Amino acid sequence: MKQRALITGINGFVGKYLTRALQSRGWEVLGLGIVPEAGVIPCDITDQAQVKQALQEAGALTHVFHLAAQTFVPAANEAPQASMAVNYGGTVNLLQALSKHAPEAHFLYISSADIYGPPQYLPVDEAHPIQPPNAYAISKAAADHYCAFFAQATAQPTLRMRPFNHSGPGQADNFVLPSFARQIAAIEAGKQAPVMRVGNLEAARDFLHVEDVVQAYVLAAETGASDAVFNVASGAAVRIQDALDRLLSHANVDIAIEEDPARMRPVDVPEIRGDATALTKATGWQAEHSFDDLLL
Predict the structure, then answer these.
(1) DSSP structure class, residue 130
(2) Which residues on neighbouring strands pair with residue 280, listed in sequence order?
(3) Span 98-126, average pLDDT
(4) Residue 258 buriedness (CB in 10 A; 0-12 / 13-18 / 19+)
(5) pLDDT tens across 143-159, in order?
(6) CB 61 within 8 A of CB 45
(7) Half-sphere exposure of 186 (CA within 13 A, CB side)
(8) Which of 272, 288, 269 is nearest to 208 (CA)?
(9) Which 3 state secondary structure label does DSSP give 7?
(10) 260 pLDDT band (50/70/90 cuts)?
(11) Do 50 and 32 contact (CB within 8 A), yes or no?
């Protein structure tokens, strides 16, 4: 059977990259999304009846990539019930529907490295304790745990992917690197005063290019592995201040920096970087883009 994948959240930032990556390898791709488009089945993933109907409409599948999520930490902290409904409840709805309509499809749950919380050691591997530090991470950790339970309780082949920070062209500017880049562009165009509003610049994060991340998802899916969990990480941490300095070095105007309390997290992790050894051993995956590729 030809590889036939369903992507939830296909209209989103990562979904578009994953669609292109799969299609370039000859996969047939369709999706679930809020915005109706060609090849997209409209579906509110928090509605169990809609999810069941969408899976019936999708037909035979070899793989399901579950990207759909509320991903912005401040929004989750402000509305934790809504975040839990999407990130945990939506995952439960999807797995229950899959068990009835596509029980042999390989399910890839896109979790988050944020579920690890403050690291007890570095780099963080998959055995690290899960101690989510915010409402978003709590909802993702709950879904991650449910996927582990589901994989053991059923015959559904299930993988959990835990990506660290990733970015690239097209990402919303409520995330740190595109926020910096778009503020600089607006200042250079005279559309914003020469002042940048920033959050915690001392934090250090493990950044990846989105194209490397979706390549990890594709390679993991193609291994046929089941009931496994893989970090997707570069293994190196970059200070947010250093990232900002690199961007400012290419600006053609002088820009002042101001801290924005609204961009500060109540609980923030000073440094985190991941260990992707398990993924590399299973698939041969290696990040191909440098950090500068994200910025220039």
Answers:
(1) P
(2) none
(3) 96
(4) exposed
(5) 999 999 999 999 899 99
(6) no
(7) 14
(8) 288
(9) strand
(10) confident
(11) no
